[in-house]
Amino acid sequence: MKIDEVDIFIPCFIDQVYPETGFNMVKLLEKAGLKVNYNPNQTCCGQMAFNGGFWDEAKKLGEKFIGDFNNNRYIVGPSTSCIGYIRNNYGKLFHNTAYHIEYKQLQQNIFEITDFLVNVIKFTDFGSVFEHKITYHDSCAALREYKLGNQPRELLKNVKGLELVEMADTDVCCGFGGTFSVKYEPISTAMAEQKVHNALETGAEYIVSADSSCLMHQYGYIKKHKLPLKVAHIVDVLASGI
Predict the structure, then answer these.
(1) CB 175 within 8 A of CB 191
(2) Cα gap 131→60, rounded to integer Å
């Protein structure tokens, strides 16, 4: 089946803190030949409320989310955290409810951007140019919630000028974990310190990841300690130079 158009999901972190990543995702999808639809009525998917134990509030947000994306198109977003939550936990909220059929369809249609590019439309080379040495952070949400595989690295290997050097313990948590970083600040900070220093040991200029929340957390540590390291969402890297 030929895919001509998609809907995009812009998570809260992207909308409020890193809007350029959302615009760059549109650039990538259009470069891949797709018409991009954005519903401006979309809001939070409800993950934060769900993880905090506020399931009634999460259900209300989930109902709205299902209504905002009810046209049976593929839905693409730049967050394994939010999309992994939708895929795995909407069933706990909507199984055997009036939204049962709709949430099942949503689960099948929604994809994280790198997974969508590599496995759905099989578009892996944008002619991107990013002349920097980078190391890649595999977020907990990517590995354990979404079950993302090697898709980000498949895309990065086609970026001209980019050198990827793997850090030690790339699959170990950076310490963000949503409200974990607030409730358990000393532990969270120590985990960020270890992650950042693993990245520094590679000699990389950038930490790249598919989750902006992890990057924000790590950059907070980097900035506070004035370390020679930057962060970048993989979408922004792939959009560079095109």
Answers:
(1) yes
(2) 45
State residue 181's pLDDT score. Answer: 67
Q: Is 2 left (phi over 0), alpha (psi -120 to 50) or beta?
A: beta
Instruction: Give CA 66 to chain center in angstroms.
Output: 19
Following DSSP, what letter does each residue of 125-173 receive, concatenated?
----B--SEEEE---HIIIIII---SHHHHHHTTSBT-EE-PPTTTTS-
Segments in the chain below pLDDT 70: 1, 181-182
pLDDT at 188: 84
Rg for the chain, CA atoms, rounded: 18
What pLDDT, on a 0 to 100 scale, did the predictor assign at position 209?
96
| Contact criterion met (CB below 8 Å) for 228 and 219 | no
Does this model's pTM top 0.90? My answer is yes
pLDDT of residue 186: 85
Domains of the chain: 5-120 (no CATH), 133-238 (3.40.50)
